Amino acid sequence: MKKILLSASLLAMLFSCQSEDSKIVAENNAAERHCASDEVLKRQLQEDPEMALRMNKIEEFTENFTKNNPNYRLVNGKIEIPVVVNVLYRTTAENISLAQIQSQIDVLNKDFNATNSDYGQVPALFSGVKANVGISFVLDQVIRKSTTKTSWGTADAMKKTNRGGLAPTSPTTKMNLWVCTIGGGILGYAQFPGGSSATDGVVIDSKYLGTTGTATAPFNLGRTGTHEVGHWMNLRHIWGDATCGSDLVADTPTHNTANYGVPTYPHLSTCSGTPVEMTMNYMDYTDDRGMYMFSLGQKARMDAVFAVGGSRASFRN
């Protein structure tokens, strides 16, 4: 089984922090997917060394849970996540429509319940591990705020009123989603379980949210949202953010690195055993039309987050 535990001392030595200004560069539509969740995690771990200890406990709970509850199901088989969408806009285009916001909620419901139209494209090799996660989402509230900022970077400024942003609403029972121009070609990022509730949630650039309005190809099918919510539910990038790294999931093949575009199947890994990579997994970096599945192992990690004693158990109520 792929396994790694976070060490506070090791993280302090290995992780370096990037300033917000270094992330704010000229705006261009992204040609390749780039999620800043790992970079943000490194910054947060440096700012809050105790976060590594909290995440270690979450990983220990997750490992024990998945080992001892192989057939676990949530109450009534499903949990529903209320979503608060915080829109920060300077231009009319950035003040995205309710229809665009709802299109993202619709995509999340399809992707997390295996009703997406491309689910049937999962290759036979992976058909035994493809998963219906069984989590649904409902739009709870949309909060809008006009701003003079041209881009927000990845230092969580959009989540802080004293930085011109919007503070999260009830973050222990509602998933907050900030929609704004991030900058630097970054599509989005999310906070992993174990971080501060004051910054908890998901951030998506308005050009890559949902399936209509300002949604821009090749990231116009709402899969940036699916990818980032996966992080929020404790999923790592499928290549483990390292060459032949670990995503802490047993049933995903070892990837040598991120994949971009829409790779031709089968795409072989250069790692030990040269396995066929699961490039169609939502936690890779492929274009929206190239990703369409979670695995059973990933589902188990997400189940653990919401289980009694889990880091997001408060969402069960």
Descriptive overview:
Helix 4 (50-68) packs across helix 7 (296-306). The two termini are 32 Å apart. It is built from 7 helices and 5 strands; from the N terminus they run H-H-H-H-E-H-E-E-E-E-H-H. By secondary structure, the protein is α/β, with parallel strands linked by helices. The chain is globular. A 5-stranded mixed sheet has the order 2-1-3-5-4. The model is unreliable at 3-27 (pLDDT under 50).
Largest sheet strand order? 2-1-3-5-4
Class per helix and strand makeup? alpha/beta
Helical region count? 7
Shape: globular
Question: Mean pLDDT across all residues, rounded?
Answer: 90
- Strand runs, count: 5
Please give the alpha-carbon distance between the first and last residues. Answer: 32 Å
The Rg value, from CA coordinates, equals 18 Å
**Tell me about the biggest sheet?**
5 strands, mixed
Question: Which strand-content bin applies to the residues?
Answer: 5-15%
Helix content: 10-25%
The H-and-E topology, N to C, reads as: HHHHEHEEEEHH
**Unreliably modeled segments:** 3-27
Topology:
Blueprint: H1 8-14, H2 20-23, H3 37-47, H4 50-68, E1 79-89, H5 98-111, E2 135-146, E3 175-180, E4 188-190, E5 202-205, H6 223-232, H7 296-306
Parallel strand pairs: 1-2, 1-3, 3-5
Antiparallel strand pairs: 4-5
In short:
It is built from seven helices and five strands; from the N terminus they run ααααβαββββαα.
